[in-house]
Amino acid sequence: MTKQNQWMSLLGLANRARKIISGEELVLKEVKNGRAKLVLLSKDASQNTSKKILDKCHYYRTPVKMVENRDDLGQAIGKQARVAVAVIDEGFAKKLALLLDESQWG
Fold this sequence. Notes:
Blueprint: H1 3-16, E1 20-22, H2 24-32, E2 38-42, H3 47-59, E3 64-67, H4 70-76, E4 84-87, H5 90-105
Parallel strand pairs: 2-3
Antiparallel strand pairs: 1-4, 2-4
């Protein structure tokens, strides 16, 4: 299984466990409330959306990981293309962050 498939499968599992929130506004709300343990942001999100989410995550000290594109993010959770997903479970967040780090560095 490729690294990409691993994180997508894990994100799908987190989704089935109801441990993720998707959609820009809902993700921002979770970050603000301190519930988001990790935010996944698509590299093809608009500049405005990226800035808004990155600024909010930076301010509230929420880790952010970039994923290749919105289609991967949506496909992983069985929905339409998504530019942002918040993981609200510490365990899933740690493992996803690890897998995404590995997939970027080989």
